[in-house]
Write a structure and sequence with these properties.
By secondary structure, the protein is mostly helical. It is built from six helices and no strands. The chain has a single domain, classed as de novo design (two linked rop proteins).
Length: 188
Amino acid sequence: MKKSGNVTLIVVLAIVAVLGIGFVSVSNSIVRAEEEVNASWAEVQNQLQRRYDLIPNLVETVKGYAAHEEEVFTAIADARAKLGGAQSVTETAEAVNAMEGALSRLLVVVENYPELKADASFRDLTYELAGTENRIAVARQRYNTSVQSYNVKIRTFPNSIVAGMRGAVPKDMFEAQAGALVAPEVKF
């Protein structure tokens, strides 16, 4: 009888060990996925900061040619302030959308000043801004991919049990602004 009691104890301990190892493994994979989301978000923030830093130079260059376009400059300043104060993915997305709208209006102003478009400083700044926009697009895509991976990880069984115990909640995607699917009209 003593032998069967030892076997039962060994089996129970083995099951507890396997479950413990599984729990730790799943918990660590959730942590890794969450850190990937955080790193991806940091890269989005980094590229948005790059844009944030370039815009005053662009605005100052345009101001020299189009001083009477104050409404556009005010919209850009307001959008920059909103972006600087954003605390969440949703607030950042809203601020980015406001900034993109203000930049679109700025580019319309630029179309009215051919001598500005020929200015070397302005051209350099617009190239830098275009490169930054591409970097932002890539960073957003990477962020959304890591969020998708994380959200799938914490919502699938058995990970969902561990995620619930850890208090893991789904992350928000960085979504395009309303109307982003409509191509802008370009006039020359």
